[in-house]
Amino acid sequence: MATTGADRVPRLTVVRRLEAAGFRAWPASSTYYDGTWAVRLTTSFPAKRLNSVNPLDPADDVAIEARIERAGRRFAAAGRPLLFRQSPLAPPALVRHLDEAGWSSFGESIVYTADLATLDLADAIDRIPLQDARRYLEASLAVHHRPASLREGLEAVLGSIRPPAAYFVRESEDGTPIAVALAISDNDLAGILDVAVHPSARRRGIGIDLVATALRHTAHKGARTGWLQVEADNRAGRALYARLGFAEAYRYVYRAPPGVAA
C-alpha cells in the first residue's frame, strides 16, 4: 500500500519523540547541533549511539558536504571515527549523498514500542530496583563482558542520565550477576536499555522475566508506552520482545565513510 504524506506525519512525530527520549536515556557527554544534525560525542565510552551524527529533520539538507566536513573535524579532534546514524529522520538528499560517496551501512537496529496497558505483566514479580549504582555498574560490565577500561566511561554515562533510572540485576545463587536491565521513566515513556543475559544463563527465561519486571516498575511510575531497541540480527532478542507484545516502530542504521572500519 502506498504511503501518503499525511500517513507519514504521525510516524515521524513518533520517531522524533522516541529519538529525543533515547538521547535523554543514554546521554552523550557533549552534543553539538549543526542545524538539526545532532553531533554526539563521548570520548570516554565507545558506544556508536554516543559517537555519531544524528540528522533529525528530513528537510534539513543544505550544504551537506560542508557539514559532513565540519563533523569530520570534530570527530577527528575527539579521536573518534566519523559515523552517521541514519533514522527515518535523515534527509533523503543526505542518504543519496552517502550512497553515492560509497559510505557503508552496518549495525541495523530496530526500535520497538508497546502500549503497557495491553501487555500481560501480571506474572512479573515486583522487585525493588537496585539502589547501588556502583553495584549495577560492575554487574553491567561483567554481564556484557566489557573491559575494565570502560568502567569510568560507563559510570559517567549512567551518572548523567537525568530522567529517573531504575537498576535491575539478577544474580546466581553464589551472587554472581547473570542479567541486567536499566529502566528509564521519562514522563509517560518507559525506556528499557542495557539489557543482557550472561551466556551461561540464557534460555532459562531470565531475560523476559527481568524485562517484564522492569516494565511493571515503570508502569507503576505512570509510564504508558514502553520502548526499547535491539540489533536486527539479534534473533533471540527480537523473539523475546515479540513475546512480550512489542511491535516495530522504525529502524536505523549506521553509515561510515569509505576506509572506516564498521
TrEMBL record:
Alphabetized InterPro entries for the sequence: Acyl_CoA_acyltransferase (IPR016181), Bact_Acetyltransf (IPR050832), GNAT_dom (IPR000182)
GO molecular function: acyltransferase activity, transferring groups other than amino-acyl groups
N-acetyltransferase domain residues: 123-262
Protein origin, superkingdom: Bacteria
Keywords: Acyltransferase, Transferase
Name the UniProt record assigns to this protein: GNAT family N-acetyltransferase
Organism: Aureimonas flava
Organism ancestry: Bacteria, Pseudomonadati, Pseudomonadota, Alphaproteobacteria, Hyphomicrobiales
